[in-house]
Write a structure and sequence with these properties.
By secondary structure, the chain is mainly alpha-helical. The chain has one domain. The chain is built from eight helices and no strands. Helix 1 packs across helix 5, helix 2 runs antiparallel to helix 3 and helix 5 crosses helix 7. The mean pLDDT is 90.
């Protein structure tokens, strides 16, 4: 590898690490920008709700439809609800919502901050003695940490209801057995595994998007590149970190692998 590129990569990783830590610690340090945080929660949460609702609904329906068809061949169609609920809560729900969140909110964060950099608004904040990371990054990290878990819970519920619709009205399975199967898989291990991931995903998406946005150079072309880079890197990191967390959680919770 070219030593110059290695040096640039090391510097970029160092800057990303410092921004991530500084932005996270800003949550407990004054001053607190409540208005900015509420605005970011509204942008990342309510503006992403409809997209996540539609995606989660059809993923739950498609998963239930496919499982019903395959399990019927084995005479196990009654277990559709159990597999749908288990898959959605532990894996599919958190990952799907995070990917949509990265494409919707993450891209918006990167493009907004990139525009501020190109418009010299970030430099203006520094001139007036305002910490850009505290003012711009911390509210976005906090909003992602709050809104992504909430959106994930809603998305999981919608996916399970979508699976119920297919199981009950298309595959003509017992509604009572479907919901009893869902209740059975709502154990601490499953709920904990599905609940911890959105916090990690939200933090990573916000940090990556803010870093790429604040690193924007080169006018409109640079803004396009930084926005695209934010989404692509976030999606790759989500998939990789999901595998790592799944492996760790299976070991910690005592599941045989």
């Amino acid at each position: 590898m070219n030593p110059l590129k290695t040096k640039e990569l090391t510097g970029a990783l160092q800057d990303f690490y410092l921004l991530s830590i500084h932005g996270l610690l800003g949550i407990v340090r004054k001053p607190f920008y409540f208005k900015d945080t509420i605005e970011q929660m509204d942008y990342t949460g309510s503006d992403s709700f409809l997209i996540i609702l539609l995606v989660s609904l059809f993923i739950g329906m498609a998963l239930s439809l496919q499982l019903s068809a395959e399990l019927a061949l084995l005479g196990l169609k009654m277990y559709t609800g159990r597999i749908v609920g288990f898959s959605v809560i532990r894996e599919i729900g958190p990952v799907t919502v995070a990917l949509v969140f990265a494409g919707r909110a993450g891209a918006g964060m990167a493009s907004e901050l990139g525009s501020m950099v190109l418009g010299h608004q970030v430099d203006t904040l520094r001139v007036f003695g305002v910490d850009p990371i505290k003012k711009l990054v911390t509210p976005r990290i906090l909003s992602s940490l709050v809104m992504l878990p909430i959106l994930t819970i809603i998305g999981d519920a919608i996916s399970i209801f979508g699976g119920y619709y297919i199981a009950a009205f298309v595959s003509h399975q017992s509604s009572t057995f479907y919901w009893s199967s869902i209740r059975e898989i709502l154990t601490f291990e499953n709920v904990f595994s599905g609940s911890i991931k959105p916090f990690i995903f939200g933090y990573l998406i916000a940090c990556i998007s803010c870093y790429t946005g604040l690193s924007t150079k080169g006018g409109a072309l640079g803004l396009r590149r930084s926005t695209t880079r934010a989404v692509v890197i976030s999606m790759i990191v989500i998939i990789v970190s999901d595998f790592i967390m799944t492996r760790i959680l299976l070991y910690v919770l005592g599941f045989p692998v």
